[in-house]
Every structure is written in C-alpha cells, then in structure tokens.
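Reading a protein record of the kind used here takes only a little practice. An example makes this concrete, so a full record is given next.
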Amino acid sequence: MRLPWAVLLLTLLGGRYLGWRLGSTLNLDSPLAAALSLTMLLAELALLATAFLQLWFTLTPDPDIAALTERAATALEQRRSRDPATLPAVDVLVPSYGEPLELIGRCLRGCLAIDYPNHVVWLLDDSGRPDLEQLCAALGCRYLARGQREHAKAGNLNHALPHLQGDLLAVFDADVVPQGSFLARTAGLFADPAVGFVQTPQSYMNADPVIRNLRLEHWLMPDEETFYRWVEPVRQGLNAVVCAGTSFVMRRSALLQVGGFETGTPSEDLATGIRLAAAGYRNLFVGEKLSAGLAPFTLAAMARQRCRWASGTLQTLRTGASPFTIPGLSPLQRLAFLEGILHWCNVLPQLLLLLMPLSIGVLGVAPLRVSGEGLLAYALPFYTAQLLLARWFSGQARTALLPELYRWVFLVPLAAAVLATLLGRPQRFRVTPKAPTAGRRLGAERRLLLPLLAMLSLLNLLPRGGLALAPISTATLALTLVWAAFNGLLLLLAIRTCWDRSGGDGTPWFAVDRPSALQDAAGVPGWPVRVRAISAAGVELELVRSAAAQGQPRSAAGSGAADTPPRPLTEPLAIALPGLATPLPLRLAARRGQRLGALWGELSAGQRTQLERQLYQQPGLWPQRRAPFEPLALLAVLRRLLQPIPPEDWFSRSLLPQVSAADRTRSPSRAPASRAAPR
C-alpha cells in the first residue's frame, strides 16, 4: 500500500533513532565490547537499509494496473466475440518431474478447462513416465519428454521452445490449478507490444507446515502473502516485477530474444525476468488470485524449498543476468533487483542480532548501553510506528510480530545455505515434495529441531550472567531481558512447529458454509444439512434445522444443531451441491453428534469434472484475507504452546477458506473466510 506520509514519518523517526544509536548507545570500554557493539550496529544497519529501500520504493508512481487489466480484458472479450481466431495463441506449459499422477492430472484438467479459445496444453515430463504419456493421450493434451535432463526446470522449458507455435506461453507448476478465467484476465495485456511477461500471485490451497502444525489457519497468514501484496505491486512502479516461476504468461518472441530461460541458476524465473527488463520490456503484475497450488506438506520440505530459493536467487549474481553487470537496466531497476536478491543475506545479521543478548551471559559484556530516557524518546517511537504500520504497508497481509516465527523456524538452515552459496557451494536443485512420502512417519524434524534446542539452552545463560554484571544500567539489562524473552517465546513456538502434524493424505480441504440436503437412493431429499468442509475426497456435513438449511442465519435456527432426522440415515446416499448439475454419491465414514463425515462414492467422469470445476477452477475461489488483530493472534499462539495438537481426521482438519460463486450470489456477508480456524 502506498502511504507517503507514513514513509516520511518512519524516515524521520528512523533518522532520529540512528543518530541516537550512533551517538549514545555504543559500548567502547574495551576492544571486545567495541567489537561486539559495532558488529551489532552494522547488523542493525544492514537490516534497516533493506527495510527503508522497500519503503522508499513505494514513493515511485503507482500504475493503475487494476484499471489497465479491466480495459485489456474488455478489449480481449470484444475481439473474441467478433473473431476468436484473432486472439493470440497460447501454449500452456506444465513442467513435471516425479509428481504424483493424480496431482498432475488435476493440473492438466484445470489447464484444459481454461476458458480461452486458442490454447494448447503441454506436459513437459522430465521423468519419462509412460503413465503420464497415457494420461495426456486420454485427456487430449500434448506430451513432451527429453533424453538429457540438464539444467533442471529451465532446461525442460527450453527443450519445449522449438516445438511451440503460440504467440504467448503460460507456465504452471504441476501442483497448480488455474482458474477458468486465467487467460481472459492476462492475455489481453499483451496487446501492448512492450509487455514481456505478466505475473500473477502464487497462492496456496492448503496451509503451509508452520500454520498447519500449530493449527493457526485463522491467525497466521502465509509468508508469501506479503511478497505478492506489497513487494510485487511496489516493484511494478519501477518496472522490476519478479517472475515467480509459475502462474505467469510470457511473450514467446521476447523470451527467444533473450536466449530462452536462464540456465545458470535454479532461479531461472528471476534471472529470465531480469533479462526481459534489461531488454526493454515492460513486465506487469496482476494481483488477482487466478490459480492455486500446494504448499509443502512437511516442515523439512518447506525448509528445503526456502533454502533452494535463497541459494538459487544468490546464484543469479554469478550469471549474465546479474543486476550488477547486465546492461540495459535503469539505476532504480538495478537497485530493486539487487535488494530482492541480497535480502536473503539478511539471515546473517538476523542471526547475529537474535544471539547478541547472549554476550552478557556468555562473555559478561553488554553489546550496547542505553538509558531509560533514550529508549522512551528514540527507540520506542520508531519501533512503535513500525508495529502499527506493518498491516497497512503490507496490504493487510501481515502483522508486525507473529510472522517473525517463520524467521526463527528456518533461520539456521537458511543461514547455512546462504553461507554455502556465497562460498561457491550452492545447493543443487531438488523438487519440493507436495504430498506425504509413502512409508515416512511424521514426527519431529531433527535437522531443524536440534539447532533450535541448542539456542534455547544458550538463552538460559543470559539471566545469571546479566544479573551478575555490576556496571550494566537498569535500562540496558531490562531491554536485554525483554529482547531475550521475546526471542525465547518465538524459539519455543519454532520448536513446537518442528513436530509435523500427523494424519491427512495431502488432499486440501476447504472451509465452506453451504446449505444442501442428503438424498436417498430414490433421489428424495430427506435430511437438510450444511456443508462445513469439502475436498476432492469427501465432505463434512452438519444436520441442521430446516430454517438453517434454507440459508437463514444460525440465530434464526437456534444453535444450528439438528432436530432428530425425519428418518434414519441409510445408504446409499447422495448430496445435491449448489452449482452442480447432478447429485454426488456419498459413503458415510464418521459421525460425531450431528456432524457427518462422508467420502465420495463412485463418481462418473462428468461428476468428477463438475466437482473439480467447483473446487479449483471457478473465479474468485481464493479470498483476499486480512491479517487478524495481533494481540488476539498472540494469545491464540500462546495457547498452542499448552495444547496438544490432534492429528488430522474427521472434524479436526486443517482448513483454508474458500468462496464459491454460489456463496457470493447468496450473500457476500456469509462468505466463510472467518471459518478458516480448525474445529
């Protein structure tokens, strides 16, 4: 969000704070104290520099991309109504390497269902599997494999380029399902010949492991939301939009002009986007959630993904796409791309700052000296302003403190990956698993847990060492203890996160609130219900009073609990879901009071297509949620430290909200976004 007055306020407060830090807080009493104090100051300056760069970038002109998208979509629809053959041809590419067959099939069916008259779907199989070739033949999309599997995903995409004929190409990872309106909302922007690529948000249909393991679906936003709701829109004003590797559309002639996808780094998306910007193309970001994929299922998989992002991004500096050396970029573009690349190095000063309070307990040296008056006059206004403005700057995508949990969980492996890459030993490319590994038992992730336990043990040294120091001021000691206590709390949460929640097969379930009715074998509706959760595997239902089943508020129908069913529940059963042409068969699998759990019965090909269209392909399925009020969120998080986390099972699932067309038509106020919390 663009808030010039807030940028000015933070800049002024930050300037006052830095003047105070430089002039009044350094401890120069001994060589060791001076070294620690200056190291801490440099680490803080490095983090503040990247933070203020991002703030100052918001002062650039804000292009009205929403209005531009609407005009382009309208013009595209007019061309389509006159002569569909005049629309740009699009090749939809799905690179694949070892993903489950059903997951790939879901993606391909979604790509084939895109409402656009002139597109061809390609599966680029880097594993050479006959079952995938058969799947493509059955679905009617094209299959392409290669013998030499060099350069991972970039090589796979480049191998397909000579086979393509379309004006544009769209790329989706194999776990991503596009909505039917994806090309209608993006392809029209290429009427401007200066546009090189159009990126859309990479959103997830399931909770990531940090959220899932702590049951924080209602209280914690995915870390990527900040990138797509703040960083990318701001970069658009600088023509420095980052290509994110999936859910984007690119002009094929522009890609060929820059030599195809960059192969010198696993982050081929970022490097290729930089090459297009340097070639003079205008790259756009459309902030509509037009597709959704899967977050990693386990914490180890998520750590691997983050480390690959960090290592691959930094490797861009060793390629011809490095913002330091590539010709054609403006100074602001260079600065924006460099900030985006080098921000991964922030884990190193972050680690130093998080551990710096230990210098009191371990070395008996305070890394800074502060007075109570200085804290109140300089530090408190600056950091309070940051806390209060974090939600607004991020487009309501994050709060100030809770997202720091992600930093703690992945700090040690990320720091190791960054250091290894800087020393010339980058991580090799490995596909991130998006489903449970067969035969692997979920539990504590030791490679993440052990470093966190070691740091927690070190924190125990702080109180004894700090209280034994005579020269330290009361304000310095209080600040250090509060600082360490906050870090310790996040550390405890990070440790708790390291236990992957058991149960579930990786199928995403969605929180909904839709009226329906169960039918018997003769098709006679006899049991009014509300659908509380739905997935490709089944549904969770609640028997309700007739008034509630007809869509009245729960208060109008008592507590929402059902009366005794009009007759006993006997199978076979079916359910008529809003928006589906035919009822779907059900098999009851669980019951708790008036709650029913049911699996889908034998679905025909047409019924499966209808169900997938409703679950994944409709416009507007993925709501733009707001980060909750942080004090309440912090209380919820504290409860998670004391509560056992049950395995995923009937009526205790990890759910993210979903809004269907039927929900929006019935009543926008009853959209189930607030029902994201697990039951």
